[in-house]
Amino acid sequence: MKNFQWSVAYVLGYLLCHVVAVYNPVREHSGQTFFDGWSYYGNVDNTTWGNVTFQDQANATSRGLTFVNSAGNAVIKVDNTTTISPAPIVNRDSIRLTSLDSYGLGSLFIIDAVHIPYGCSVWPSFWMYGMEDTWPLAGEIDIIEAINGMTNNQVALHTTPGCFQATNALQTGHTLETNCSKAQGCIVGESKPNSFGPGFAQAGGGVYALVMEPTGVSSWFWSRADIPDDIASATSSSTMDPSSWGTPSASYPSSACDFEQFFPPQNLVLLTTLCGHWAGVPSIYRSTCNTPTNSCINDNIFGNGSNYANAYWEIRYIRTYLNASLAAATTTSASTSPTADPATSDSAQPTKGPSNRTSSALQGVESPMFIGIVSSIIAMLFTSALAMTTW
């Protein structure tokens, strides 16, 4: 009986985060229009305090830090040509983009990248956060994030107290932390090879996907050779059905986190910072890089920048989708005036809280069809469990 009860709990945990839905396309960022629909930050890194100055769109374009290459892919890079002399405070130029759309529960995100920034001092991330309130009151989800010489990606959720990764989460990755309110968030490390660093680039890149539903958050990674056929052959108008993608790399069932409480609409962010409050922490830097003085700033930021030749994103597309069973409402506004975030932490892996408060809104309501299906299965399983108690 105990084994059956455990099996019921395990199956329920899977069902609560398993995606059974078709997603309709909302927006595609690709090719010559990739940079439409983004706000350039245009300020220093005042959230994770990396040694960068994020450029505005005019400077980024004129200096060749954001452009579309001959392959039709978007390139977002760190300055690797300016010579910086030693000084008490030094910043190298980089890019932070924030989407003008925000996305509620019932959304799917897919990014196809050929190259992700890597190298000592390099801290790239593709993530989302709620702009309705001061961080972390509106949540944060990290889809792609790693630093320095790491070779595997990490997915993480950040919330106020009360949200956890369930112990019965069905995933292929390995859980590093279950409490989402800790400074580093609730983290799952990718177990598949080539999810970050030189391996990702040498494999031709790959695809990351993340579903955000009231029933949970699931994230997948595929190296270039393993991308599912429905994604590999998709166009900007194709619908998506994640139920065919197999077990996710990271899974956060709603059995241990109320996603409607902790995650209002989220805005996408794509950036690369340098050093800062994770990559630049001396003990972490020494464990993930081997440089002459073991100093993140001295051994990397100073100099002619040639060491940042691999500190760039090359992206084929970013596509967003909405659960076909959800009703959506869209409004539009935009802001490009960042303000300092007082909530940043001096922890090993801090969050990258908000600095840009307004955006368009794109959010849905919970799917009664899916809840009905899950409820029916739950009732069936517990009826079976009660019957077994009489045997």
TrEMBL record:
GO biological process: glucan catabolic process
Pfam family, one: GH16_XgeA
PROSITE patterns documented for this protein: GH16_2 (PS51762)
Low complexity bias locations: 333-348
Keyword Lipid metabolism: no
CDD domains: GH16_fungal_Lam16A_glucanase
Gene3D superfamilies: 2.60.120.200
Membrane-spanning parts: 369-388
Gene Ontology MF terms: hydrolase activity, hydrolyzing O-glycosyl compounds
Annotated segments matching region Disordered: 333-361
Bias-annotated ranges (Polar residues): 349-361
Signal peptide: 1-21
GH16 domain ranges (all copies): 4-287
PANTHER family reported in the protein's UniProt record: GLYCOSIDASE C21B10.07-RELATED (PTHR10963:SF24), GLYCOSYL HYDROLASE-RELATED (PTHR10963)
UniProt name for this protein: Concanavalin A-like lectin/glucanase domain-containing protein
Originating organism: Gymnopilus junonius
